[in-house]
Recover the amino acids of this structure.
């Protein structure tokens, strides 16, 4: 049994907050204070940064007490995610999500589509905020890989969420979004294969490509008069909506 599978077993065996504290090598009082005693308005500091595409992005930086917990949880989840992914795929070009992972990047994401006749990029809207407390709790308690006890899933969701969403700025939001986004990746990859396309995702940026003579309009259509701008097709819109996400209309 590997170290990673042992780590996952620790979470599966955990019963409550005290067990989680033990796994994270923290005192239960540290987690209790951050979750239940630290005033809500002090848990995060909000500020905005400009987006490359225009507009601003709201960042919610956690209080140091909470950040320590989130960083340790993120480290564990990244390790578990890596082990689960290694069991599913043997080659890097089979990996669908390239964001927030060691040795993967926007460059490795793009390599999957290099030299293809058509490359269609569309963005998901409010990727982190669209993942709420219920989705995080539901994933950790019902997903077959985790299947954690309800009390444990609740505490993990409390660590991860703020104001009923994954905050952009939390150390554990990226890995949790990838774990929950796996069902999105599976469905979009199935859609891509159906139309002889290739699919990958980098954070909230999803990409389809093909070297077929025509790009399938079920997935996307070039906007009138544009080479690089695409509008999502009906099958793509439906598949994304069914997984609880939305396309950014820009």
């Amino acid at each position: 049994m590997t170290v990673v599978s042992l780590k996952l077993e620790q979470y599966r065996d955990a019963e409550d907050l005290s067990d989680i504290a033990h796994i994270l090598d923290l005192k239960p009082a540290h987690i209790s204070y951050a979750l239940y005693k630290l005033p809500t308005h002090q848990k995060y500091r909000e500020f905005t940064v400009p987006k490359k595409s225009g507009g601003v992005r709201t960042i919610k930086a956690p209080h140091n007490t909470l950040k320590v917990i989130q960083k340790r949880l993120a480290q564990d989840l990244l390790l578990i995610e890596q082990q689960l992914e290694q069991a599913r795929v043997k080659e890097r070009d089979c990996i669908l999500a390239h964001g927030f992972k060691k040795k993967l990047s926007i460059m490795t994401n793009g390599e999957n589509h290099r030299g293809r006749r058509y490359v269609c990029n569309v963005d998901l809207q409010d990727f982190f905020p669209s993942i709420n407390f219920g989705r995080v709790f539901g994933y950790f308690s019902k997903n077959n890989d985790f299947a954690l006890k309800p009390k444990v899933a609740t505490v993990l969701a409390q660590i991860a969420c703020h104001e009923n969403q994954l905050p952009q700025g939390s150390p554990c939001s990226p890995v949790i979004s990838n774990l929950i986004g796996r069902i999105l990746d599976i469905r979009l990859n199935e859609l891509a294969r159906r139309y002889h396309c290739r699919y990958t995702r980098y954070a909230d940026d999803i990409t389809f490509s093909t070297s077929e003579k025509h790009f399938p309009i079920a997935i996307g259509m070039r906007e009138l008069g544009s080479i690089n701008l695409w509008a999502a097709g009906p099958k793509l819109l439906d598949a994304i909506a069914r997984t609880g996400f939305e396309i950014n209309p820009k």
In short: The mean pLDDT is 92.
